[in-house]
Amino acid sequence: MAIDFPRIPLGDWIEGGLNWLTTEYSGVTRGISRITQTGIDGLNDALMWLPDWSLLVIIVGLCWWLANVRLAIGAVAGLALIWDLGLWDPMIETLTLVVIATLVAVVIALPVGIAAALSERLYKTIMPILDFMQTMPAFVYLIPAIPFFGIGSVSAIFATVIFSMPPAIRFTTLGIRQVPTELVEAADAYGATRGQKLFKVQLPLSLPTVMAGINQTIMLALSMVVIAAMIGADGLGSEVWRAIQRLRPGDGFEAGIAVVILAMLLDRLTQSLRKKGKA
Amino acid sequence: MSDNRNVKIRVRNLSKVFGSQPKKALELRDQGLKRPEILDKTGQTLGLSNIDFDVYEGELLVIMGLSGSGKSTLIRCLNRLIEPTEGEIVIDGQNIPSLKEKELLECRRRHFSMVFQNFALFPHRTVQENAEFGLEIRGVDAAERRETARNALKQVGLDGWENALPRQLSGGMQQRVGLARALANDASVLLMDEAFSALDPLIRGDMQQELLQLQHRMKKTTVFITHDLDEALSIGDRIVLLKDGEVVQIGTPEEILTKPADDYVRRFIEGVDKSRILSAESAMRKVRSTVRDTDGPRTALRKMRDHTLDSIYILDRDRRLIGLIDADAASQALEDGKETVTEVMTQDFRKVTRDEPLHNLFAMFSENRFPIAVVDDDQVLQGVVVKGAVLDELAQAGDH
Ligand SMILES: Nc1ncnc2c1ncn2[C@@H]1O[C@H](COP(=O)(O)OP(=O)(O)OP(=O)(O)O)[C@@H](O)[C@H]1O
Ligand SMILES: [Mg+2]
Fold first, then answer.
1. What's the total number of domains in chain B?
2. B158 within some domain
3. From the CA of B46, how far away is ligand 1's center (Å)?
4. What is the residue extent of each domain of chain A?
5. Strongest mean pLDDT among A20-29, A144-153, B129-138, B246-255
6. Which domain holds residue B325?
7. Where does the record place the CBS domain (chain B) (predicted)?
């Protein structure tokens, strides 16, 4: 006879907690929801309002300026393919979600990362939380997002921010901690305040590392935004999702290739931004 | 002799324990235990123990000791880059360990500039911006700090390099930038932690000379750390010798060399003690001017003035050394209407032969203020040894 261990109702507790949060803070969540939705709509409308060709020119120009001609040529080819496949509008929707999620993630991650670098105690508290955030399967974040923010893009942003933020925090902390102690000591020796030390020495010297973190955040955000189609986010992800439901692998791959092209463009762009910062 | 000099920094009873139970470590120290035993018993490192010394206004004080003796800890306690565990550090009436955070920043800005062993230049700033750093921190306006930094760079011979980045410069030049950053700041004390140790020997010698010149010109109170006795001897006005976090001896280079406080110091200076094989000849200089026994005090005075001498040797017609007269005695003789210098000359100076061991000369210098004459067996004057030359000779000998 098996010993009858009582099952720990972990799931019930978490659900209870989430329920409590959604009812207690419904005002807050609704506020966040409204602001985020406005941001998404605004950026989306702006990008949609631009004629397709002019957006293409802007992106290609950016590639040329920040990186090189090769990336610019690649961008022309890739974007033309997306346009030709009729995936331009979903691509814009995805880009919008990625940009907003990344912005929110970075705005939260920078101060947290800096604080964790400067305080040993905070560092020790935050690192396990980051491990947790990163190893938890991405889908799981989608579930609490719905009671908080309902089905749709805001929930997608919420889940994406949580999922993609850890590298930005981690790299910011790492970057600041990697600044040679003797340089920090030199700043101290000349009587620098904490703020002067941070802005004149620590941040400028950790910039390349911080940028590497932001690059990873963007990549994670892109992958999550695609998954978030499951809870009603528009964009390339929902094209994939529809293809799955209708069992049309061709459509699915077309949308998938568009995601890959977008990913490569964003990656190369942010990397060259980083190199530019270093030089 | 040093009593009438102004004390710039007074350090009393300074101790530093690295670890979480400093009280326990200090208790054991008070029971007479030394650093290794304290480390064994408590796991605490006694970095510094009961350090007492003064830094005089305008002097170049060298803190010397082997690796691990606590030099870096000591210099960092002065501006509290390391928090002292106990003790007093008083600069211009302020006790640094008891300053609040804001006062400490103010104190660092006003009193301390620092030069680091590995330069610690900011790689993202140009040479000019590096030199401006201290002023920028103090909120000096852009035009003024540009001007000041530019002057400092000129002083260390780096004009024309303002817009270079540190990594484009050689080690010696980088440390000049470090020095310029310190000088531009115009703080009242210059702290240098093994500032020249990372440089190769030739550059290092140059930098030492330049530092000496700057220091003589600006009379900047300087605390200079080195583990190298030769460096200490050649630049220090006084030397504080550390061992295992304690002061073993404080004194001028001569005092350290001639009256080592204990066996440790004796062993320490052995490496330099080439004086046992060096002789008076190696430190001997040409005599700039002499007078004859038949000359009068007026001639002696004129020759001393022309050759910037404080005293002058008197020779007979065979160039044999028969005496010495100093400027005071000569003026007195002139007033008294004396005919020849021989009437007032003195014999109270030291004479040696060329092969006299150099280390013997130290003792002579401490007993007698006149230069030492070098003569041959027939008492014919060969040359003269002045105090500085002996030290120079020893310092150079240490390099071989
Ligand atoms: N942060 C620290 N924690 C623990 N022990 C330390 C710390 N800093 C220095 N010590 C110890 O204190 C002693 C003195 O170190 P310090 O760096 O002052 O020596 P030093 O004379 O400057 O040596 P070096 O010539 O190698 O630079 C050493 O035993 C060192 O191990
Ligand atoms: Mg050291």
1. 1
2. no
3. 9
4. 23-278
5. B129-138
6. 281-399
7. 284-340
ipTM > 0.95? no
Of the candidates B335, B344, B332, B336, the residue with the CA atom closest to the CA atom of residue B291: B344
- Residue A46, Cβ neighbours under 10 Å: how many? 12
Q: Which residues contact A78 (CB under 8 A, 6 or more apart)?
A: A261, A264, A265
DSSP H stretches of helix in chain B: 22-30, 35-42, 71-78, 101-111, 127-138, 142-155, 171-185, 201-218, 229-235, 253-258, 263-270, 280-283, 297-306, 327-335, 358-367, 387-397
Domain-embedded: residue B17: no
Buried b / exposed e across B284-302, counting CB within 10 Å, b at 16+?
beebeebbbeebbbebbbe
> Rounded to the nearest 5°, which phi and psi values hold at B342?
-60, -25
Ligand 1 lining (C-beta closer than 6 Å): B 18, 45, 47, 65, 67-73, 227
Q: What is the pTM of this model?
A: 0.76
Residues 159-198 of B with CB under 8 A from A: 185, 191
Distance (Å, rounded) from C-alpha B220 to C-alpha B57?
Answer: 8
Q: Count Cβ atoms below 10 Å from residue A249 Cβ, excluding itself.
A: 11
User: What's the CATH class of domain A23-278?
Assistant: mainly alpha
Tens of pLDDT, residue by residue over B44-53, are 999 999 999 9
Q: Which residue has the tokens 């992800």?
A: A237
